[in-house]
Specification:
With about 500 residues, this protein is mainly alpha-helical. Among the domains are: about 140 residues, no CATH class; about 60 residues, no CATH class; about 80 residues, no CATH class. Keywords: Repeat.
Length: about 500
């Protein structure tokens, strides 16, 4: 739901930005290299720490010097823990350690990352406690973005009524003394729209718009919600209602509508809106052009995609990673894998780093057009660059390796992630363990399950039942008892989650 993030932009602290820029600009220096190594080391220590048998803070006191605990260091570790699907309580312990055991004032970014990790794992009680604690100790950390993180996850995992109660609690218990207005109303609307709960979003809008005066951003959030739900008719009806109410469309409004048509394969309609946008003197943004490049790819119109890309500098804009990814996607759709590889090389020449979307798109293309050899070449290049792909790419790769009888590559990917301090997603475990067990590689499957449990994450019920069956079949009852013990320990601290192991009796 990246689009929703653009509609509520919260600036980070100048200090955080300065440290980030300073680090990036000197990333080749010995000091920067040492800092990165230290961040990697601490992330591995936190993820590998026995949970919940042993408290984490004594280890942190032993392993981290208070002198080296900078704002950038804390933000980087928490960012890695978030990307690594680490246990939320470990992240919370690290965040509190950074506050209580040195003179460091927590940054907004560090607080928001901790809140995000907690709410993603449904530790809502801990998240509320943290927000209220920050209200007393560091009220400047409470921003619209932190409110948005909390409400979005409540809307995802709890009911409509619970979300409204959470909004009210924000007003009475967390943001005390703050007059809630349109910005806060937009956060509530966004929480429902980001989950595609448009019925609830409209209900809230109708119920509360008399109290909070909606603005163009409100309408764009709702418009984006209709777009993400895939209902172009509902989106267009709302757009005309928006204009009728007197709201003037801006570039974001046009971008949303263009994206909706492009994703439905109606590239001509997208171009029509683009021309209308220029006609009414609403300047197209880089996002507009990027959306059209992607739309041209969906329509298999690669020449138009290339033309739009080449026109970017003529519009006094600079192509970024998003524009390159859109063109790569267009080339892949037209089965031009060679040009896509050349474009990756061009990105490196221009010092535009490949991101998760670049790799995911290229892997999809390799799987369809180059087979296992092309996938392996790209995979090894990615590993050599120490790049960590996002979960959806890891899932896709693991499934491809296991389905094509390359279990060793699947295990290699698993070990790479674990070594880097990441806790692979439970769906990745499902795929790998199924492949290993079906080929009689039970010891390796058992070790992968232990890797997950040791890091404070649970396995799915289906994987547990599979391991239970195979361990009993091969008379490995001791290993089954070890898994049961670890699962029971976690049940005291993990919130209930659908599809995970609840009872682990033999």
């Amino acid at each position: 739901m990246k689009g929703f993030g653009r509609l509520i932009q919260i600036p980070k602290t100048n200090l955080s930005q300065f440290l980030s820029v300073a680090y990036k600009s000197s990333s080749s220096s010995p000091i920067a290299s040492e800092l990165k190594t230290d961040i990697d080391r601490i992330c591995r220590i936190i993820n590998d720490h026995p949970f919940p048998d042993v408290p984490l803070v004594p280890t942190l006191l032993q392993q981290i010097s208070s002198v080296s605990l900078s704002t950038y260091f804390v933000e980087s570790v928490l960012g890695r823990l978030f990307a690594a699907h680490s246990n939320g309580l470990k992240a919370l312990e690290f965040f509190k350690y950074s506050i209580h055991h040195c003179q460091l004032t927590p940054s907004v970014d560090a607080f928001e990352k901790t809140l995000h990790i907690l709410t993603r794992m449904r530790y809502f009680d801990k998240a509320w406690e943290l927000m209220i604690e920050m209200r007393h100790r560091h009220p400047s950390l409470l921003t619209l973005k932190s409110m948005s993180i909390m409400l979005a996850k409540v809307a995802k995992f709890q009911s409509y009524e619970d979300t409204l109660k959470a909004f009210k609690r924000m007003e009475t218990d967390v943001f005390v003394g703050r007059n809630f207005g349109t910005d806060e109303f937009n956060v509530l609307i966004r929480a429902f729209c980001s989950q595609r709960e448009m019925k609830e979003a409209r209900l809230v809008f109708q119920k509360m718009h008399s109290r909070f005066s909606p603005n163009t951003k409100t309408m764009n959030i709702l418009l984006l919600g209709f777009k993400e739900s895939g209902n172009i008719t509902a989106m267009e009806l709302f757009y005309h209602d928006m204009v009728r109410r007197g709201f003037k469309p801006n570039s974001m409004t046009y971008n949303i509508r263009i994206d909706a048509y492009c994703k439905k394969g109606c590239f001509g309609d997208g171009l029509r809106l683009f021309e209308e946008m220029e006609r009414v003197c609403c300047s197209p943004t880089l996002e507009t052009i990027t959306t059209l490049i992607h739309g041209a790819g969906i329509a298999r119109n690669t020449p138009k995609a290339r033309q739009l890309f080449d026109e970017i500098p003529k519009r006094n804009l600079q192509p970024d990673i998003g524009a390159y990814n859109a063109l790569i996607s267009s080339l892949i759709r037209s089965r031009d894998i060679k040009s896509a590889i050349d474009l990756m090389d061009e990105m490196e020449t221009k010092q535009i780093k490949h991101d998760s979307v670049t790799y995911h798109t290229m892997f999809l293309g390799m799987m369809k057009l180059s087979g296992i050899q092309g996938v392996c070449e790209l995979y090894h290049k990615m590993i050599e660059r120490n790049f960590i792909p996002q979960t959806r790419t890891v899932v896709m790769l693991m499934k491809y390796f296991c389905e094509n009888q390359h279990l060793d590559l699947g295990l290699n990917l698993w070990d790479y992630l674990v070594h880097k301090g990441y806790c692979p997603h439970s769906h990745v475990l499902d795929i790998l363990v199924t492949g290993l067990c079906s080929r009689g590689r039970l010891p390796e499957a058992f070790q992968c399950c232990k890797n997950i449990l040791e890091r404070g994450r649970n396995m799915s019920e289906s994987v547990y039942l599979m391991m239970q069956r195979y361990l009993k079949q091969y008379d490995e009852v001791d290993k089954l008892m070890e898994l049961n013990r670890m699962i029971k320990n976690l049940q005291f601290v993990l919130p209930p989650s659908r599809g995970q192991v609840i009872d682990s009796s033999c």
